[in-house]
Amino acid sequence: MSPASAQVFEYRNLSLSCGDNSSVDGWRIFRSTITTFSTSATGVPTVNPGGKTSGCGDKWGNITSCGCNIYTSKQADTAIYWCESRAKQRSNSLNISVQETAVILESPILAVMKGDNVTLVCKTKDRDDLRADFYKDGSFLETGAAGHMTLHNVSGYDEGVYKCHISTEGESATSFLFVRGATAATAPRTDWVWLVLTVLRHLVVFSPYCASTFLAVSIYRRNPPGRRKDDEATYGQNDDVTTEHHF
């Protein structure tokens, strides 16, 4: 499903597609409007669908041969969109945000593959070549002289919340960049797979030590020092005993 960017300007046409001639094949675009937003402890914005679910042509949008067109989109069109067939098959869902701000950040709306080059564009309604600052997870990354920033050979470390700022225009809303195919080697070390492997490595290293310690303690408990002294004393007393033999 398209479009390619998660943010669009208000009062611009929004074209949604499920593929060529998808409407003829029985596919239709649905949406669930978003009523609330929340932010996780890591600063990741989360949309909470709580509005009405409806299909293109039901008081919004115009059905086309490949999907749906929304003319002069408004903030009320901010929603989660997806394609659905007559058999109730569903495509991936897209969170599309219609912005009234002067600046938006164009970024991939779907997950990108590990190793891809990803270009982020900071743009106004009229230009996409203005000097812009880019941020990730609230921290400054770099300044794009022409409003562009490219992430080369992306990995799990590039996944996060991005935004941009143009000094003469303002700041964009945030967008989350997902990276698909990131492995434990490139993903942050809080990954649960890495934690499991770490625990197993420590078990392998310390298991022989634990086993030898347990064996030593067992021997110690069976032969405590006091008992060995008693045995030595008894043995010494036996050496002083004289046995008489009568013939």
From TrEMBL:
Stored SUPFAM superfamilies: Immunoglobulin
UniProt name for this protein: Ig-like domain-containing protein
One of the record's GO cellular component terms: external side of plasma membrane
Entry-linked InterPro entries: Ig-like_dom (IPR007110), Ig-like_dom_sf (IPR036179), Ig-like_fold (IPR013783), Ig_Fc_receptor (IPR050488), Ig_sub (IPR003599)
Signal peptide: none
Gene Ontology biological process terms, A to Z: cell surface receptor signaling pathway; immune response
Keyword Signal assigned: yes
Region described as Disordered: spans on this chain: 226-247
Gene3D superfamilies: Immunoglobulins (2.60.40.10)
Ig-like domain segment(s): 100-174
GO molecular function, one term: transmembrane signaling receptor activity
Keywords: Disulfide bond, Signal
